[in-house]
Amino acid sequence: MLAEREIAASFLHYRRLLGVAALGLIAAMVAFAFRETWPEGSRHWEVAGWLLGALLLALLGMVGATYYWFRSSMRHLIQLSQARLRMVVTDSLTGALTRASFLDHMRRAFSGTTDKSIGYIHVDMDNLKIINDTYGHKAGDAALAHLVAVIRRAAPEGVVGRLGGDEFAVLFENLSSREVLAASAQAILDALSRPVDLKGIALQLSATLGVALAPEDGDCVETLLANADLALYVGKGAGRGRVVPFDREMSKDEQQARFIERELRGAILLDQLTVHYQPIVDIQGQKIGHYEALVRWQHPYRGMISPADFIPVAERSTLIDTLGDWVLRRVCRERASLEAVSISVNVSLMQLRRAGFAQRFLGILADTDTPLEAIVVEITETVRLSADAIEMRNLELLMDAGVRIAIDDFGSGATSLDYLRRLRFDAIKIDRSYIVNASLDPVSMALIAAVANIGRALDIKVVAEGVETEEQKRMLQAAGCTHLQGYLFGRPQALPRAPEMTPAQRRVA
Ligand code: C2E
Ligand code: CA
Ligand code: CA
Question: Is residue 329 assigned to a domain?
Fold first, then answer.
């Protein structure tokens, strides 16, 4: 700013001088115009000539000086704005290009004609939030700056940009092969995972990297970015801390997921979903009026779509909440026709993570006059049960109101028996994979027997899922399970429809 003000001030100064010279010239020209009135052979002529010449010289000098002044000022201004521009194009924390300038750079790379490939790596730092929360924002900032420094060292030929928060991108022009790109990505990850001391804090950082190569994986900036992003998304789902190259199959899966997402919304509105009920029987195989509710989707063109396919897609958005509410409402309404004592409903981790979930759940039970003890909520083992977690608060609200909770798929998740100490569960459901293997695998059998023992000690029901044969039934009885569920006792089935009325009957009704 200071330099611009100085330039402006000196311009005013020059303008004043120029003005004086121009006025002088005008005066001389006026005097010259009245030359007829001058006496013949007067000294006026001589004086006027000198004056005019001097003024002309002064004016010329001024014009020359102004030209040099203008040139040097412009040069100065250009240097100044270039310095300012550098500040805008690079991120002040990490020195990486800003998002806009990085994308600009990428567009320029795509517009250049070269027969070499363009490589792109989308780098997403893992656990920045945890670093910020544990060690403060200064440590988080240092970690981000370190990440960029590591990228620059491990892949010096790449251009680094910060796309936002903890997301970075590296662009490689004139890349010779896919292998070189993958090796650069791996080198970044390896270098990053070396322990580092940041402002006195020993940290081991990690990142997930999505990799794509133009033109094979995308022949324009937008497609290449979207595909690297997709690879990154897949990498995060697979457990982070890895390099994931884009693969065409990924985009097929993604298209399928998008199709499901779009259609499922409509299916809920159009009532294309139904709920099937599968009996959970006692250890003798006798029906006791308890069922598990399992959602079904009969698509008009695609036929039956399995919940194993559409629940994970619904979990990516708030669709799972709409779906969950719909299933619960339907179960509560159908309970009477099923003459069920109680019905288990599956509740996804994503639903439990939503503030207000328990209140909405209890609201639906109240709306439909459903007694609280008639519903059991099945949750999977992957739910975090730390005291301050929102999942825990939702579960406690439901339990305090009188809704029972069962652990589903026990043994399939990564959690331990610690789960049983945290909550007063009503039942443990042993994952089907253990039942299938029980006769062949002594470890499976031992786990079933151990869980049955724990259940007895804690007075919790132990349900074996996926029982298909008499042999399995006998083994599970011997192991001490309390309940059984599986095709042997009944497949999931829709409520028997009320028989269609004949036109005659309808007239009478
Ligand atoms: P899950 O809760 O473990 O449900 C048991 C699954 O095993 C059901 O598959 C059921 O049909 C199947 N099954 C039952 N007995 C047998 C058997 O003897 N043999 C074999 N091979 N399979 C048996 P389904 O209905 O396809 O459901 C798959 C998963 O989808 C469920 O697993 C559950 O996690 C989820 N799900 C289903 N309905 C809902 C729902 O309304 N909400 C949520 N959030 N998830 C649901
Ligand atoms: Ca279940
Ligand atoms: Ca299960």
Answer: yes
Whether residues 451 and 344 fall in one domain: yes
- Residue 486 CA to ligand 2 centre (angstroms): 12
DSSP states of 275-293 as a string? EEEEEEEETTS-EEEEEEE
What integer pLDDT is reported at residue 301 of this predicted model?
81
Residue 290 dihedral angles phi and psi, to the nearest 5° = -110, 140
296 and 200, same domain (yes or no): no
Three-class secondary structure of residue 117 per DSSP: strand
Fill in the DSSP letter of residue 272.
-
Nearest ligand atom owner, CA of 352: 1
Q: Report the atom number in ligand 1 closest to the C-alpha of 324.
A: 42
Which residues partner with 175 through β-bridges? 117
**For position 10, what pLDDT does the model report?**
62
Would you say residue 255 lies in a domain?
Answer: no
CATH number at residue 153: 3.30.70.270
Domain range spanning residue 473? Answer: 271-494
| Shortest-distance ligand to the CA of residue 485 | 1
Low-confidence stretches of the chain (pLDDT < 70) are 1-14, 17, 21, 32, 38, 41-42, 82-87, 113-114, 387, 413-416, 497-509
Verify cis geometry, omega within 30 degrees of 0, for the bond prior to 195. Answer: no
Residues with CB under 5 A from ligand 2 (ion): 346, 378, 408
| Contact (CB, 8 A) for 119 and 181 | yes
Distance between CA 467 and CA 487 in Å, rounded?
6
Domain CATH number, residue 416? 3.20.20.450
Write down the pLDDT at residue 114: 66
* Ligand 1 neighbour 304 (Cβ under 6 A): no
